[in-house]
Structures are given as structure tokens and as C-alpha cells.
UniProtKB/TrEMBL annotation:
Keyword Phosphoprotein: no
Official protein name in the record: CynX/NimT family MFS transporter
Signal peptide: none
UniProt keyword list: Membrane, Transmembrane, Transmembrane helix
NCBIfam families in UniProt: CynX (TIGR00896)
Matching InterPro entries: CynX-like, MFS, MFS_Cyanate_Porter, MFS_trans_sf
Record flagged with keyword Amino-acid biosynthesis: no
One GO cellular component term noted in the UniProt record for this chain: membrane
Length: 418
């Protein structure tokens, strides 16, 4: 085989070399490109169902007569479902194979997006539940696939699909309001549009189901994660940093609207902040894996996140875009490092899949309390100033958990073949 001409080609060839049962009907690099494209398109669909709601939350609430409490539940329910349904992912993967599960759940995600833009309030909540559950299951499976097929470049690949995930969130945050306005101020079309990229991702993922048929079918049961302190530190870091992220997705536009911005402006600020995450989501894992451990990187990105949040909440509006950029740099790094920790703290793909299930299942359930707390505090105080204390508590907790999770060691578990 000719020598690889660049690092990406080398990464793709190494990915196929890690798979000792691949089919040889296609060139090696072509198969790896299909997998890389599929992972990117799947990741693009893991946030639009969440970030598209926040800029339209006021319009949806007024249209359906939702109280402030029910609107707060609407921001909390999908995040809660991320956690509650994440434990299903390893079971489904053992039963049907990870590739088949990803394909099927992409279709349920598209169904949930359509459902929430129809059938009134019932459809809105039911569709949000289905979309959140779908995202939770797919999100658990991706770290295991990366660990299995890109084992030699786990940090880089985690950054790549995290960058795609952030891009999807940014597109939905920035484009949903203009889409709804283009179609006659119809929030239903603005929300329902995001089923299109989900169906496109399912179509592009289809070749993976055929290529992996009959391979990687050996199932393993991993025991001992719940007794391992390092696994809990990874889980707590995932949950606490995610809580801050979903507060931003769910409430930042409302905070900025109350500070004087229009709905379109607030959506663009959120979108711009998420776009900045593209850079740090790719750079942070790469830089963090160059040192002896990830503790310093975790502290840096969390401090950036807290600085950006406090700036958006308290600083004068004429410097808002600067604070939004700081926030984006921080949150892109915090999330990509959380996913990288799952891979780096696991000895193999089976452990990574189960640690991913624990970290995201328990973590996202914990994370759902953040948006709920912000909504309750806002209703109680009538403003947003006190929410700074919530930001501080979550951020400090994430740093403490991250200092444990960032140590260069593996979780101690037992893995047995079924």
C-alpha cells in the first residue's frame, strides 16, 4: 500500500487496520471515509432538537398558552430523557449491533421532531420526550464506536465528532427563528425542519449497517463501574458541565431577550457562541492528550465557561459578543473533554461503551436539574441575577470532579464475554 500522504489519510488507514475483520471489497481509505462521514452527520443531529427550541420558547409558550412552569419543563424534559434512556444503549447494541441501533434511532429522532411540531401541547411534550430519548441512546454509542474503530486517534476523532455536534447546535440556534419567520411566523415549521438532516444522516449511515454485518458481534458484560471512584468522577464531570450547557441552550436566549435583545438577536448570540465551540471542541482534546493528564485543561476550559456565563449575565451589552466568544471557547472544550475522558479512562471499546452509558445516563439526569433550577429561581425572584449562584456552584463542582477524572489512569472493572 502506498505511504499515506497526510495525517488524516493515516488516521483513516489506521482506523481500518484496527478492525481485523473488515471486508476488502472497497479500498481501505474509502471505507474509513464512509465511517468518518457517517459519524459527522450523526453528530450533527445530536443537538438541533435541543437548541432549536430556546429561541422560539416565548412564541411557543404564547401560542399554546404554556405557563412559565410548563415552559421550564419543556427545557428540562429532553435533557432528563438523555439520562433516563442512555442505559438502554448497551443493551440494544448487544442485541442488534451498534450500527443498526444508530440507524433505527435516527429515524425515531426524526419522528420525535415531527411530533413536537404537531398535535399541539401533547405533541410538543411527547415529541420532545422521544427526541431526547433518541439523542441519549445515540450519544452513548458514539464513544464506543470511536474507541473501536479509531483507537489510535481517539482524542482527535472525539474532537471531530464533537465539532460536528457543536455545528449542528449552532445551525439550529441561529436558523430556527429565520426559518419560522420565512414561513409566516410558523414556529411549527421552524421546529419541524430539523427532521430533514436527521433523515439525511440515516441515509448516509446505511452503508455502515451492511459493512459491519457479521463483525464485532461478540458481546461483553462489564462489571464494577458503580463501585469505581474514577467512573463516578467522570460521571459527575459529565453531568455538571452538561448542566451548564443545557442552561445555555434552554435559557440564554430568554435571559438576553429580557436584557433587551430581540428573539433573532438572542438566537444569533447563542448560535455565534456555539460556532466558536467548533474550534475549542477540536483543539481541547488534542492539546489535553499531549500532556501527562487532562487536569489543567479541565480547569482552564471551566474557568472560561464561568467567565463567559457571568459576562453574558451581568456585563454591559456592548461587550456581549466578546463574552459569548469566551463562553463558546469554554463550553466547546468542557464537552469535548468530557467525551474524551470516557475514551481515555477505558481500556477497550466494551468498557468505553459501558462507561459512556453510566456517565451520560447518570450525568444527563443530574444535568436536567440545572435548567429546572434556573426556571424555578427565575419564577421565584422575577429576574435572572440570582442564577449566577447556580452557575458558580455547578462550575466549582465540575472543576472538583474534573481534577479527579483528569488523572491518567483506567477505571477498574471486570469484563466477561457473554
Amino acid at each position: 500500500m502506498p505511504r499515506p500522504e497526510n495525517a488524516l489519510e493515516e488516521l483513516l488507514i489506521d482506523a481500518e487496520a484496527d478492525d481485523d475483520q473488515v471486508q476488502h471489497s472497497q479500498p481501505v481509505v474509502n471505507r474509513a471515509w464512509l465511517l468518518l462521514l457517517g459519524l459527522v452527520l450523526v453528530a450533527l443531529n445530536l443537538r438541533p432538537a435541543l437548541s432549536s427550541m430556546a429561541p422560539l420558547l416565548n412564541d411557543v409558550s404564547e401560542s399554546l398558552g404554556l405557563s412559565a412552569a410548563r415552559a421550564g419543563l419543556l427545557t428540562t424534559l429532553p435533557v432528563l430523557c438523555l439520562g433516563l434512556f442512555a442505559p438502554l444503549a448497551p443493551f440494544l447494541a448487544r442485541r442488534f449491533g451498534a450500527e443498526r441501533v444508530v440507524l433505527g434511532i435516527l429515524l425515531t429522532l426524526a419522528a420525535g421532531i415531527i411530533l413536537r411540531s404537531s398535535l399541539g401541547a401533547v405533541g410538543l411534550f411527547a415529541g420532545s420526550l422521544l427526541a431526547g430519548a433518541s439523542i441519549g441512546i445515540i450519544g452513548v454509542l458514539l464513544p464506543g464506536i470511536v474507541k473501536r474503530d479509531f483507537a489510535r486517534h481517539a482524542g482527535v476523532m472525539t474532537g471531530v465528532y464533537t465539532m460536528a455536534l457543536c455545528l449542528g447546535a449552532a445551525l439550529a440556534a441561529g436558523a430556527t427563528v429565520p426559518l419560522s419567520q420565512h414561513f409566516g411566523d410558523s414556529w411549527k415549521i421552524g421546529l419541524g425542519f430539523w427532521m430533514v438532516p436527521a433523515l439525511l444522516a440515516a441515509l448516509c449511515w446505511l452503508p455502515q449497517v451492511g459493512q459491519k454485518q457479521g463483525t464485532h458481534q461478540v458481546a461483553y458484560r462489564v462489571r464494577g463501574l458503580l463501585r469505581d471512584p474514577l467512573a463516578w468522577q467522570v460521571t459527575l464531570y459529565m453531568g455538571l458541565q452538561s448542566s451548564l450547557a443545557y442552561i445555555v441552550f434552554g435559557w440564554l436566549p430568554s435571559i438576553l431577550i429580557d436584557r433587551g435583545l430581540s428573539a433573532t438577536q438572542a438566537g444569533l448570540v447563542l448560535s455565534g457562541s456555539v460556532i466558536v465551540q467548533l474550534a475549542s471542541s477540536l483543539a481541547a482534546p488534542w492539546l489535553a492528550t499531549r500532556g501527562k493528564d487532562q487536569r489543567l485543561a479541565i480547569v482552564v476550559v471551566m474557568l472560561l465557561t464561568l467567565g463567559g456565563l457571568f459576562g453574558c449575565l451581568y456585563a454591559p451589552l456592548d461587550g456581549l459578543w466578546g463574552w459569548a466568544i469566551v463562553l463558546g471557547l469554554g463550553q466547546g472544550g468542557t464537552f469535548s473533554l468530557a467525551l474524551t475522558l470516557i475514551v481515555l479512562r477505558s481500556r477497550d471499546a466494551h468498557v468505553a461503551a459501558n462507561l459512556s452509558s453510566m456517565a451520560q445516563g447518570v450525568g444527563y439526569t443530574l444535568a436536567s436539574l440545572g435548567p429546572l433550577a434556573v426556571g424555578l429561581v427565575h419564577d421565584w425572584t422575577g429576574g435572572w441575577a440570582v442564577t449566577g449562584w447556580i452557575f458558580a456552584l455547578l462550575g466549582v463542582g465540575a472543576i472538583i470532579a474534573g481534577l479527579g477524572a483528569g488523572r491518567a489512569r483506567y477505571v477498574h472493572v471486570a469484563s466477561e464475554r457473554l
